[in-house]
Amino acid sequence: MSAISTYFKSIFHSLFTVLVGMKITGLHLFKRSVTIQYPNVKKPIPERARNRLYVNIDDCIGCLQCAAACPVDCITIETIKATPDVDLGMTSKNTKKRLYIAQFDIDCAKCCYCGLCTYPCPTECIVMTEVYEYSEYERKNLVYSFATMTPEDSIAARRRLQQYEAEQAAKKVHIQPKPTPPSGTDAAPATT
Question: According to CATH, what is the number of the domain 53-170?
Answer without folding.
Answer: 3.30.70.3270
